[in-house]
Amino acid sequence: MKARLFLAAAAGAVAFFPSPALAWGKTGHRVVAAIADTQLSGLARAYIREILGGAESLDEAANWPDEMRSNPEPFWQKTSTPWHYVTLNGIIYDHAPPQGDALEALNHYTATLRDPNASLSDKQTALRFIVHLVGDLHQPLHVGKCCDKGGNDVKVKWFGKDTNLHAVWDSQIVDEEQLSFTELAAKLGRHTSDADVIAWWDVNPRDWISESGEIRDGLYPPAPPKGAKGTKGAPAVPELSYGYVYKFTPVMERRLQQAGVRLAAYLNEIYAKPLATEPPR
């Protein structure tokens, strides 16, 4: 019943982000899951294997909520769209809008994993969403502000090609180094100290949201001078290239590291002790 009410409340709402807003892209989400996988407790790993089965890894599950947005069903085309981000002015999260948001979805799916009456299919959906949403909340432009749709409306050039600031942070800055997700996850794992893990081990999503909100505004490039013209006389837009990469790659990598650590912490917290019943079969 709670699930149906949650879906009904979200259905029919207008999202503030356009549907292509996919946090981190495929590489980033897989990196987050791969980092988390190295820090799972034995109990959490056992429950995850029971839910996903032996053929699906955590990093494979990470992009499923984005991949399913190609499904023409109304749930994927309309209802679930606002569940990939939150919107706030400043850095303190207040409450979800009527259509729901990423934090409300995270809470909903966490309850599903803990529900002894939930079906295996529901738990699979819940786990895949949780893996994805923890990554989303660490992408600073998925903690959007009014009213540029998380940077989707901020037009920029990335090494001379037209794009927008949101797309830069979803994929382009992550993929600039041209590492596979396993290579990038291994690199970031080597550069995550025990002290980092201790400092970042935080299961409160509101803290992650506030961190992203603090980072977000600093990612916006200066606007060109008023009246400046770009290619073919069009209004000039910020040109992002090596200088932006140099300045913000450490920020991007730190958020991926933190998301991986927090995902492990969050899943370990859910499975801190055996649940009331055996895992679903």
Automatic annotation (TrEMBL):
Pfam families: S1-P1_nuclease. Gene3D superfamilies: P1 Nuclease. Residues 1-23 form the signal peptide. SUPFAM superfamilies: Phospholipase C/P1 nuclease (SSF48537). InterPro entries: PLipase_C/P1_nuclease_dom_sf, S1/P1nuclease. Keywords: Disulfide bond, Endonuclease, Glycoprotein, Hydrolase, Metal-binding, Nuclease, Signal. PANTHER family: ENDONUCLEASE 4. This is S1/P1 nuclease.
